[in-house]
Predict the structure.
Amino acid sequence: MRKELQIFLTAILFFTRIPCPKWVDHNPEYLSKSAKYFSLVGIIVGGVSAAVFYGFSFILSTEIALLLSMVASIYTTGAFHEDGFADVCDGFGGGWTKEKILLIMKDSRLGTYGVIGLILILTVKFFALRDMPLPFIPITIIVGHSLSRFIATTLIYTHPYVRDTKDSKAKPAAKSITTGMLLISAVFGIAPILFFNKPLMFISIIPCYLAKVYLGTKFKKWLGGQTGDCAGAVQQLCEVVFYLSVIALWKFI
């Protein structure tokens, strides 16, 4: 039980800025197994974001409350996945070989493609959430974070890791995942959809996974697999795709 707790807290330590006990560190043994709690971390991050939105929605406009909720989620993760998405935009925007793409993605400096990508994806997130029925925004935020992280976990499962672990900020966390770990991630990633109490919402999994397949195909073609940045890009894209899917499905509920 203590070992499993340490694996979970390692996931919290690695994927967020939430304080953890001093005895939790980036132990490679635990870090390599932490991806199974990726979706659970999403529930926590989404919960923080949803709580901020819910609280401020009583005293501020919906738009400002949404912006503050987005700030809260980015602060909670240290822009971990947004950084990966921006790196992928820069890498695939400016690189034409595997070596060049990986080199650009490793560069800590943000390029034009990354800036434009972040502006666009954050803008779409904001307007998509704003167009939802107000009472369902908090649960939509939570599910968006959990489901998108589960889909990102499937990328780690289906695509080999292509960067030297010693040379990567992702370390072993994005290197590989077993079927059992994937199933645990699936439970935490998909179960929150039940809180909508609308079975039709499970259809949203399909477009999210198709978005992952699209990016996964590009990653396979140009890189031969995936990196931690690739998983971050999948998470960001699938979060947006989920929000858009909810808006589309709402017309049939």
